[in-house]
Amino acid sequence: MADEDPAVSVCFIVEIDDFKLGTFNSCEGLGCEVVMEQREEGGNNGYVWQLPSRIKYSNIKLSRPVTKDTEKVTRWIAGMVSGVTRKTGHISAMTADGRVVARWSLLDVVPVRWQGPSLNPETVKVATETLEIAHHGFLDPDRA
User: From which domain of life does this come (predicted)?
Assistant: First the structure.
């Protein structure tokens, strides 16, 4: 039963194709939404059809304290100066002891935004970075 324990304290390993971006301690926006269209049928006043039309995927925001891996993110983004190419991405949720709890494979990943640390000598805070990526959906885990 230990393998079925929920992920209470996790970190997220991020890979874009063969580019390992390192470990992040926060992951937000991993999800999707089915857009529903409403159709009213003439003569049927007590019913509105709810028809699924498309799936929208939200951007994913990954955050962590600045580490040596920060250079990997900036190197990945700098490699797109001559043109943005969509890649396959993988986000793995791991427990503190290194077990993979869940893994999501993402189709056509592109960087949307990178926010580096705000460095201010007057406040003592951990320097953090945030990477925001967009994608076109999830890949079947058996094929990724």
Answer: Bacteria
CB 115 within 8 A of CB 130: yes
**Count of the separate structural domains present in the chain:** 1
pLDDT in tens, 116-125: 888 777 877 8
pTM listed for this prediction: 0.84
Residues 6+ apart with CB under 8 A from 5: none
* Residue 143 located in a structural domain: no
Residue 70 three-state SS: helix
Under a CB-based contact definition with an 8 Å cutoff, are residues 77 and 60 in contact?
no
With contact defined as beta carbons under 8 Å apart, do 24 and 64 qualify? yes
User: According to the model, what pLDDT value does residue 4 have?
Assistant: 58
How many Å apart are CA 79 and CA 18, to the nearest integer?
Answer: 14
For residue 63, what is the domain's CATH number?
Answer: 2.30.110.20
